[in-house]
Amino acid sequence: MILSEYTVFPVEMVWMKSWLNLSGAVLLAFGMAACGTFPLPPVSEQGKGARQPESQYRIVQLGDTLYSIAWESGRDYQDVAHWNHISPPYLIKPGQRLRLYPPSDAVDRRPLPKSPTSSETRRKAPPEKPDRSLSARRTPVTTPSQLAWMWPTQGELLERYSTRGSNKGIDIIGKKGQTIVAAEAGQVVYQGSGLRGYGQLIIVKHNADFLSAYAHCDKIYVKEGNVIRRGQKIANMGSSGTDRAKLHFEVRYRGAPVDPQEYLPKK
Q1: What does R_g of the chain's alpha carbons equal in angstroms?
Q2: 69/75 Cα distance (integer angstroms)
Q3: Which domain holds residue 245?
Q4: What is the DSSP letter of 4?
Q5: Rounded to two decimals, what is the model's pTM?
Q6: Burial annotation 203-212 (CB, 10 A radius, 16+ → b, else e)
Q7: How many structural domains are present in the chain?
């Protein structure tokens, strides 16, 4: 068949060609909208969030301590010890299975300290039933502690603590090799790089309620088990686990993140 500018096509063929062109345009538009609406999730520092247990149990790996597992899961180390019948000094071993949720018959070991504004409410409120959900965490109570905190390093505040955001501590910018000191006296209960997003990390236990953490360290001068004093040099600032030299500093009260600036001296 020889086509010319005078050739007449059947109406059905013209209609089908128009329909195909329209369909292709619609599909292309949907594809472009989908790409703009659902971008790939960005890679962020895991250490900036309060991690929740992903399963009911956790298998102990080489280098883990009870404190690091509790920190990573957002639990109080004493609760994890209680649920697994582990006594001080809380020794664990690789291959051991630890429960990260309370048993169904668990009873809260330590009620939160009473405050003048809510003591009557607590006395009248009925006892709470054990909650096995991810939200079953103690509410941080920023009551004054008997600890004399100091700033762990010098430098400008790069990022503040966020109650609803992802940063559960503060970030202090500085230079690689800059001195990091213990914010308060205590005992080193974890030193290593096993917690994703923290880089080289130090966790210090100050008393039964408070722990502090120093992340992204370079050279470290303390080991697990060391008893350290307030202001003692424990590490050099680095960029391990992050993209710039800085210190990520956290304070935990009974396993829950609290704002470090509520305890540190005002600048």
Answers
A1: 27
A2: 8
A3: 157-262
A4: -
A5: 0.71
A6: bbbbeebbbb
A7: 1
